[in-house]
Write a structure and sequence with these properties.
150 residues, mainly alpha, 4 helices, 0% strand, flat
Length: 150
């Protein structure tokens, strides 16, 4: 135990006056704090490595046989008629974006409502500013007639 403590003592700036058991525990606690940060980095790197390996193995093992039929667009087994590049009304996209904005608003407001009593007035002011920005976005959408269905 003394050997372990003397090796890591200069590294972590541990005091020499304490007995070996408390010194050993202090070194282990400092190692635990350092390894906590490294474990997140290691998990991130392993996740990226795993995803890259899965994509790479898929590319290597996949059978690639391009052909005339495979290049055609497919819709419910019915052969396409005319051009397959149809332009949709932009209103669908704008409506879905407005829904998404207010859906994400609820995701932020639920935890705020849970912790409002703990945080107090600063949280109340911040949520009013947040709702004000969303309301300004909604007014802009009304001004541009983005929510009007034609």
């Amino acid at each position: 135990m003394r050997c372990f403590c003397t090796i890591f003592t200069p590294l972590f700036n541990v005091r020499f006056e304490e007995d070996h058991h408390s010194l050993f525990i202090e070194v282990l606690l400092k190692l635990k704090n350092i390894m906590g940060a490294f474990s997140i980095l290691i998990m991130l790197m392993l996740g990226i490595l795993f995803a890259g390996l899965a994509i790479g193995v898929g590319k290597i093992l996949a059978v690639n046989r391009p052909g005339g039929v495979k290049g055609e667009s497919y819709e419910c087994g019915i052969p396409t008629q005319g051009s397959t590049w149809a332009q949709f009304n932009v209103g669908y996209y704008l409506f879905s974006l407005c829904f998404l904005i207010f859906d994400v608003e609820m995701v932020f407001m639920y935890p705020w409502a849970i912790t409002l009593t703990e945080i107090g007035l600063p949280a109340l002011i911040e949520i009013f500013i947040f709702i004000l920005f969303l309301y300004m976005g909604l007014l802009y959408a009304f001004k541009k007639k983005a929510l009007r269905w034609n």
